[in-house]
């Protein structure tokens, strides 16, 4: 599945939110969108997810213009993890994960149920499956949401020997928010495993280390426009980070893996408070 975005602009109310963004991503890639708060990352993901059909420009998924793809077809070919999922009804954890299958049928058959259990095990929330979802911690809820989108994507209860090339797209908006380091790694490994199986994965991330370790390509947005895009090494430079986030960083090289390690520059003096004194922000 190829995603082609050409000259996308989006206005919400009277505010220009996205400005003339173009890029392409392929099946098998983990494409990461980064940028400062308000840069337009969620808006761009929502355009690709079909949430904002009033965009200007061209979004093509596997060659078809997004607005012409029937809603039912969109729902069965892509799964979306949104930034803020609010769910207060006392559904059990396994009910929430099972919602991923509802795009195919409201009545889950044996295969659907196996897929849901597989998704719960993969995200290590199987033991919580009978708990009411609202009673979970923030990170646990996020893992259940990952299980839900995984259940939506999978065609078999396993991650081995998958071939989803040209069939599926996964859109993740800050998927690891609230997760501990183990489950951050697990989630991004899952995203790359799915990408290797042919799923086109687009993820919004704030964490440079996760992006550096897992992304095949990074798009860096600034004020609604594409500031730069390319490989991890091309995008995660001190100059690009300074220009898009306003923070001085030093970019080191990971001693084992060779990918960039972004650390805030010790010389920047940002956010330092005199030792022992409360930080006075006003
Ligand atoms: N429905 C809306 N109506 C008007 N403006 C909006 C709407 N949704 C988002 N915006 C504005 O669009 C801009 C981009 O928002 P968006 O949520 O895409 O940013 P983001 O890069 O995902 O930020 P964050 O890192 O904080 O999640 C922001 O200035 C936001 O206030």
Molecular structure report:
- The chain is α/β, with parallel strands linked by helices and 282 residues long.
- The chain has a single domain (2-268), classed as P-loop containing nucleotide triphosphate hydrolases (Rossmann fold, 3-Layer(aba) Sandwich), CATH 3.40.50.
- Helices cover 30% and strands 26% of the residues.
- The chain is built from 9 helices and 12 strands.
- The protein has helices at residues 41-48, 71-77, 93-98, 110-122, 138-153, 181-196, 208-214, 232-235, 238-245; strands spanning 2-12, 15-26, 30-35, 56-61, 64-65, 78-81, 169-173, 200-204, 217-222, 225-230, 249-253, 260-264.
- The strands form 3 sheets. The chain has a 6-stranded mixed sheet with strand order 6-7-8-3-9-10, sandwiched between helices. Strands 2-1-4-5 form a 4-stranded antiparallel sheet, covered by helices on one side.
- Strand 11 and strand 12 (260-264) form a beta hairpin.
- The longest helix is centred in the middle third of the chain and has 16 residues, at 138-153.
- It is globular.
- 39% of the residues are buried.
- Bound molecules: adenosine-5'-triphosphate (ATP).
- The site of adenosine-5'-triphosphate has 12 residues, from strand 2 and helix 1.
Q: What average pLDDT do the residues reach?
A: 91
Instruction: Supply Rg.
Output: 20 Å
Helix percentage range = 25-40%
Beta content comes to 25-35%
Strand order of the largest sheet: 6-7-8-3-9-10
CATH architecture verdict: 3-Layer(aba) Sandwich
What are the low-pLDDT stretches, counting only 5+ consecutive residues below 50? none
Top-tier CATH class: Alpha Beta
Helix/strand-derived class? Answer: alpha/beta
Question: Any idea what the CATH superfamily is called?
Answer: P-loop containing nucleotide triphosphate hydrolases
Listed once per kind, the bound small molecules are:
adenosine-5'-triphosphate
Q: Total domains, how many?
A: 1
InterPro entries: AAA+_ATPase (IPR003593), ABC_transporter-like_ATP-bd (IPR003439), ABC_transporter-like_CS (IPR017871), P-loop_NTPase (IPR027417)
Domain ABC transporter: 3-248
Keywords: ATP-binding, Nucleotide-binding, Translocase, Transport
GO molecular function: ATP binding; ATP hydrolysis activity
């Amino acid at each position: 599945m190829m995603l082609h975005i050409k000259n996308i602009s989006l206005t919400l109310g009277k505010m220009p939110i996205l400005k003339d963004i173009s890029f392409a991503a392929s099946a098998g890639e983990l494409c990461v969108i980064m940028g400062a708060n308000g840069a337009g990352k969620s808006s761009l993901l929502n355009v690709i997810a079909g949430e904002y059909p009033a965009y200007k420009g061209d979004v093509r998924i596997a060659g078809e213009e997004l607005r012409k793809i029937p809603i039912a077809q969109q729902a069965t070919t892509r799964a979306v993890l949104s930034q803020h999922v609010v769910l207060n009804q006392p559904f059990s954890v396994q009910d929430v994960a099972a919602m991923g299958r509802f795009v195919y049928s409201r009545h889950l058959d044996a295969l659907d149920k196996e897929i849901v259990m597989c998704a719960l095990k993969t995200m290590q929330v199987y033991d919580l499956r009978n708990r009411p979802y609202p009673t979970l911690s923030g990170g646990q809820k996020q893992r259940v949401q990952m299980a839900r989108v995984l259940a939506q994507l999978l065609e078999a209860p396993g991650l081995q020997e998958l071939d989803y090339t040209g069939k599926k797209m996964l859109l993740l908006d800050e998927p690891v928010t609230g997760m501990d380091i183990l489950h951050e790694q697990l989630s991004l490994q899952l995203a790359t495993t799915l990408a290797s199986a042919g799923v086109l994965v687009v993820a919004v991330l704030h964490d440079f280390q996760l992006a550096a370790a897992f992304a095949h390509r990074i798009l860096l947005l600034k004020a609604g426009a594409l500031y730069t895009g390319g490989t991890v090494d091309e995008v995660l430079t001190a100059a690009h980070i300074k220009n898009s986030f306003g923070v001085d960083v030093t970019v080191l090289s990971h001693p084992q893996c060779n990918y960039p390690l972004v650390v805030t520059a010790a010389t920047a003096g940002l956010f330092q408070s005199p030792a022992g004194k409360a930080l006075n922000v006003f």
